[in-house]
Sequence to fold (110 residues):
Amino acid sequence: MMWTKQKRRSIKGRFILPLMTIGVLSYFGYHIYHGEYGLYSRVKVERHIESLNSELKSLEEQRKGIEKKVSLLKDGHIERDMLDEYARKILNLSKPNEFVVLTGQGDLSK
Fold:
């Protein structure tokens, strides 16, 4: 009868694969939440998108107002009130019986 010796695995060999697995899963788990395309970054990007959308809405409203004023000054149908208002602002003129209130809004140089 022959006896065969069985080799015992060392402690190092038994724990390398589980330790590597834990390390890889930890790495990817961390980057799923904190990475450049992770969940936390997604929340920040969504907040930024919301702020930009609100800014876009306010700019669109300003644009509509400006387009309305420009349409009133186009050739063929200039309104006298608009023409009078802009001429007074540009030339800094008023009638002697008028009271002028300066608000700082409606600057034509912008």
Q: What stands out?
A: The CA atoms of residues 58 and 104 lie 20 Å apart. The chain has one domain: 14-90. The chain is about 65% helix and 0% strand.
